[in-house]
Amino acid sequence: MIQVLSVASECAPLVKTGGLADVVGALPGALAPEGVDMRILLPGYPQVMKALARDAVVMEEWDLFGGHANLIAATAAGLNLLVIDAPHLYDRLGSIYLGADGHDWPDNPERFAGLCWMAARIAADGVAGWRPHVIHCHDWQAGLVPEYLRTFDARDRTGTVLTVHNMAFHGLASYGRIGSLRLDPERFNPEGFEFWGRISALKAGLVGADRLTTVSPTYAAELLQPEFGMGLDGVMRARRDVLCGILNGIDEGVWNPMTDPAVTPYADASGKDANKEALRREFGLPDSDGPLCVVVSRLTEQKGLDLLIEALPTLLAHGGQLAVLGSGEGWMEEAFRNASQGGPVGVRIGYDEALSHRMMAGGDAILVPSRFEPCGLTQMYGLRYGTIPVVALTGGLADTVINASPAALAAGVATGLQFHPVTADALRGALVQLCDLYADRDVWTRMQANAMAQPVGWQTSAKAYAKLYRDLAPHE
Asked: 268-289: b or e for each residue (b if 16 or more CB lie within 10 Å)?
């Protein structure tokens, strides 16, 4: 049995701001059949602490970047957790990353350094007879783990993997915090964790981890290019021999139209009709002969939703409708609200997990026009629910959707639509094609059946992760 510590800033269903949480929460169950005993190290946010069951203090840290902390072993939502009870770092209301003013918490560097420090301590000392063979670090919040393993002289005994879920976030801090973050000044150089005169937690992980992964093969290739590498493409090219892309999956127990408690259950696409009628009522949309498109997303330019605002009149002119669930940039929220005043557009600002399920079940198409998308999960939820994805040709969107090209349609294998370049004009063309395909009921029904038959679970990817862990485990 390989023992793996998964280190992350969020984990579904306990605390979630995006797809990272879904992946972290799904991996332990997916990996258990592969002989992997995975435990998750999480900050003790209020919503996490309230969910704990059968908890016990297994380690103390007298000065975790400004205060005392207990490490608690517990279970919650069927997961084996190690939770850092450090109120001075994590006991805050609101967003786990942002203050009430909408800006990052000023001490975020210390907050997530604390997460990494405790991971290194667990690797060095073990907890209750359990010590990880491998630490799986997720994004910049876990990027300092390899640096702190040096501090605890535990690098040779512990393999490390860093998964890049989104290269856009670096976890930057000024050089003046190098002492307070307990980092070695000699490592502050271009070969270490220095990034344009600042400390980069993400770069620390990229240069220090034994293996690097991303969440789709296409995104792994894209990160070697300047337009996607966010200033770290040179680091990625230097480490390309230890880089691979392992496609995310989804939890097919949670996302299952036959058993989903949030929807009217169905086994094939004909069962979507009742859900579509209910969704239209919920969003105040009239009946229509065109497709009901849905968006479940952060409302940001990375997600390409400014392009959708430009292209929306084309969709509506061809009889389409739109239902939006999400939050993000203020101007974009306002633009979608304004759109809802002048046509068959419904908008809910915020996030509602049950509503997201109802939208997948009731929508005809899910729109994901992202400028870059490391993997994306919403298009896979759409596939599972027979909701045709319309996606930009990038990252995991390219790896998970079979475009409705003439060849794919002739062969009867298409599952969605891809467009490129990522522009409003190209999206307009995809939306027109969507409406044309929707009008051909035989073609549309075949695409829905193909989508629902597409493998979107963790089985293949779990085997790839397990092999990676076995290759890294020093004592295996």
From this structure: ebebbeebbeebbeebebeeee
CA dihedral 64, 67, 68, 72 (to 10 degrees): -60
Q: Return the closest-CA partner of residue 90 out of 46, 40, 41, 144.
A: 46
- Indicate whether this model's pTM tops 0.70: yes
The domain made up of 269-453 is a member of CATH 3.40.50.2000: yes
pLDDT tens digits for range 322-334: 999 999 999 999 9
Helix (H, G, I), strand (E, B) or coil at 94: coil
Q: 139 with 94: CB under 8 angstroms?
A: no
Structure-token pair, residue 327: 């939050």
Q: Could you tell me what percentage of the chain is helix, strand and coil, using 3-state DSSP and rounding each to the nearest 5?
A: 40, 20, 35
CATH 3.75.10.10 assigned to 2-249+459-472: no
Show me where the domains of the chain are located.
2-249+459-472, 269-453
Instruction: Judge if 2-249+459-472 and 269-453 fold alike in CATH terms.
Output: yes
How does strand 198-200 pair with strand 134-138? Answer: unpaired
Based on C-alpha coordinates, what's the Rg of the chain?
A: 23
Tokens of 126: 């073990």
Q: What's the CA gap between 260 and 282, in Å, rounded?
A: 18
pLDDT, one tens digit per residue, over 221-247 is 999 999 999 999 999 999 999 999 999
Say which DSSP state 188 is in: -
233-241 contact pairs (CB < 8 A, 24+)? 235/203, 235/206, 235/207, 236/206, 236/212, 239/206, 239/207, 239/212
